[in-house]
Amino acid sequence: MSRNSDIILTALAPAIWGSTYLVTTEALPAGYPVTIAALRALPAGLLLLALTRCLPPRAWLGRTFLLGSFNFALFWVLLFVAAYRLPGGVAATLGSLQAMMVILMARGWLGTPIKAGAVVAATMGILGVGLLLIGPEANLDPIGIAAGLGGAASMAAGTVLSRKWQPPVSALSFTAWQLTAGGLILLPLALIVEPPLPPLSATNFAGLIWLSLIGAAATYALWFRGVARIEPGAVSMLGMMSPVTAVLLGWVVLGQSLSPLQALGAVIVLVSVWAGQRANRPSIKAATAGHMTPRARNA
């Protein structure tokens, strides 16, 4: 499959993640972020484990739980803290810093060179997300800012380490391992810090099914498949599709207004995503190295 096809398939994941805000606010009970996160991750992971029939070997348990924490447990908890304590635009803009963090982490952990074009594209994307989402009423809460930055760093670390540690299994199995690990970390935390869920309606169940099966199992399988095939800097830029989708869904489904400045921000984000793919395109030497086996890459 061509690189362009890999990019399109990977971009579907963050584009679908953009529906999370809409589904959470319109279809799920409020006030249970950790419980919802656990119910999003654990059933999806167990379902994929049942389908793939592939458990992580003992040697991979430590890495699996670390990745499950970075990509799901820690990331989702910090994301919800930031969302509760900051205006949505500020939280999303802090999250967009992930692209810049991935560039730096990939340099340290993978030896990937820092390209000026990739830095410019990431900076453009952060500016675009800010124009798209930040309003004049934005207030800055120190704890919220720390959570937003921590969430971005967690997802960035998970993305780079998922590229560095490639087990000799399918992307679906790798996704199953991480989702299950993340869910097992979140479940006891939810039981400790949150009250039991109220009786769920049909709408609540539909929202949970969407977030778990589509928003977790299917999309993260596409995401980790892309992480294994595309350069980390290019993958991280695709994550900026999420706020664009969220704003468009709010405009189309909820009738929210879309100002000219927001429209400009969306265009800037899309241009930055395109520029990021070009800037992070591997050289012929790197592309040849990319055909190494997972065992060779892990050596």
Account of the protein in words:
It is built from 15 helices and no strands. It has helices at 3-17, 20-27, 33-52, 61-85, 88-96, 98-110, 116-133, 142-164, 171-193, 202-229, 232-238, 241-252, 260-279, 284-289, 294-298. The protein is 78% helix and 0% strand. The protein has one domain. The chain has 299 residues and is mainly α.
State the low-pLDDT regions, or none.
288-299
* Secondary structure: number of strands: 0
- Name the average pLDDT: 89
What's the Cα radius of gyration?
Answer: 18 Å
CA distance, first residue to last residue:
26 Å
Estimated helix fraction: over 70%
Spatial shape:
globular
Alpha-beta classification? mainly alpha
How would a crystallographer describe the biggest sheet? none
Order of helices and strands: HHHHHHHHHHHHHHH
Q: How many structurally independent domains?
A: 1
Q: What is the count of DSSP helices, taking H or I runs of 4+ residues?
A: 15
Strand content: under 5%
Keywords: Membrane, Transmembrane, Transmembrane helix
Transmembrane segments: 7-24, 30-52, 64-84, 90-110, 117-136, 142-162, 174-193, 205-223, 235-254, 260-276
GO cellular component, one term: membrane
Organism: Aliiroseovarius pelagivivens
In short:
Pfam families: EamA. It is a multi-pass membrane protein. By secondary structure, the chain is mostly helical.
Topology of this protein?
Elements: H1 3-17, H2 20-27, H3 33-52, H4 61-85, H5 88-96, H6 98-110, H7 116-133, H8 142-164, H9 171-193, H10 202-229, H11 232-238, H12 241-252, H13 260-279, H14 284-289, H15 294-298
Subcellular location: Membrane
InterPro entries: AA-Vitamin_Transporters (IPR050638), EamA_dom (IPR000620), EmrE-like (IPR037185)
Membrane topology: Multi-pass membrane protein
